[in-house]
Amino acid sequence: MTTAPFTGRKFFFIVASAFGVIIAVNFAMAYMAVSTFPGVEAKNSYVASQTFDAERRAQLALGWDVGAKIEGDLLVLTITDADGAPVEVATLEAIFGRATHVNDDQVPAFEFQNGAYVAPVEAGPGNWNLRFVATDGEGGKFRQRISLYQRPAS
Predict the structure, then answer these.
(1) In the 8-state DSSP scheme, what is residue 152?
(2) What is the rounded CA–CA span in Å between residue 100 and residue 152?
(3) 74 plus 30 within the same structural domain
(4) Beta strands 65-71; 74-80: pairing state
(5) pLDDT band for position 18 (50/70/90)?
(6) Would residue 43 count as lying in a domain?
(7) Do 102 and 29 fall into the same domain?
């Protein structure tokens, strides 16, 4: 049995194929990264920065402390005042989702129960973010993003 000689042409096609696979995978990964995570915190960061300090001072003046946890299929959000008493806010808007993409975003329907806000959510294992805006009775806004980690079921 005779084998064909290893020519420069064969070597070129092998190297070109390898680089073609690498480039195709890089383009596919870049497309998936850009298409699943918008990367936008503020539409116009300059405009958002103009009121940041005033909003921060107003939020700190409320003296609220917040915490969140996932208990089974429930998301529990606690908001307490400077004395540690539960705060019942006028409005509460929230988005619960993954840190890396918007595909799993949920809008929790919070209900105030026993001094905490409780909402059913579908939270698989991994990192989650709760972004919320709460308004006090006088129109003061409190914004926060809380990172949560859901352990895999064992």
Answers:
(1) P
(2) 18
(3) no
(4) antiparallel
(5) very high
(6) no
(7) no
d(CA 121, CA 126): 14
CA nearest neighbour of 113 among 67, 78, 66, 144: 78
Q: Determine the structural domain holding residue 20 and report its residue range.
A: 7-36
Cross-strand pairs, 143: 133
Find out whether 135 and 141 touch, Cβ atoms under 8 Å: yes
Look at residue 47 and tell me if it is in a domain: no
How far is Cα 25 from Cα 22, in angstroms, rounded to an integer? 5
Arithmetic mean of pLDDT, 132-153: 88
Could you read off the pLDDT of 123-135 as tens digits, one per residue? 888 899 999 999 9
As a whole number of angstroms, the distance between CA 34 and CA 40 comes to 11
In a domain, 30, yes or no: yes
**If you ran DSSP here, which 8-state letter would residue 151 be given?**
P
Closest CA to 109 of 124, 123, 97, 92: 92
Two structure tokens written together for 5: 């000689």
Considering the domain architecture, whether residues 81 and 132 belong to the same structural domain is answered as yes
Q: Looking at the structure, do residues 58 and 17 belong to the same domain, yes or no?
A: no
C-alpha distances in Å from residue 130, one per residue of 8, 30, 49: 58, 26, 22
Write the CA distances from 143 to 31, 33, 84, 135, integer angstroms: 31, 27, 19, 9
